[in-house]
User: What shape does this take?
Amino acid sequence: AVISPQDPTLLIGSSLVATCTVSPESHLRAEDLYWTLNGRRLPATSYTTLGPTTLSVALSRLNGSKQQSGDNLVCHSRDGGILAGSCLYVGLPPEKPVNISCWSKNMKDLTCKWAPGAEGETYLHTNYTLKYKLRWYGRDNTCQEYHTAGTYSCRIPKDLALFTPYEIWVEASNRMGVAVSDVVMLDILDV
Assistant: This one.
């Protein structure tokens, strides 16, 4: 069997019509099929038979995904067998990270924290990347030691320049887009 669309990414509140098509060799027909979402059977009133071997389901006003790995939409045969599945990723684009603050214990390292944005929850797996560079001539660097001072934090352990300002920012990305914080300017001696 084949489900279409396969693994779509949708905005909260969206609607979706998915189809399950079984091959004629399976000896299954549309009336032999049913749908589940995260293990719960969807009502037959949401189904439409589109052909002898194709059954669609209409989902409306979708809520944010219950699991960051996506919600499981599954097409089953009458006896409960799984024929095909699709992950629905329902959520929001990331918001611009805010409130970046940094400190240094010994002028050799730098630890920064931030907040994920006003709402924070996107219902989708969101990656946060702290980036930094020397203000006038540096290339972009990416922080490697995350979660050192809490969920939204990163530590730069070495190779920092003194007497030169740094530009520091955070990029948030998920299946629906990228949001970039304002750039913070700081000198290691000041933090």
In short: The longest strand covers residues 82-91. The chain has two domains: 2-91, 98-186.
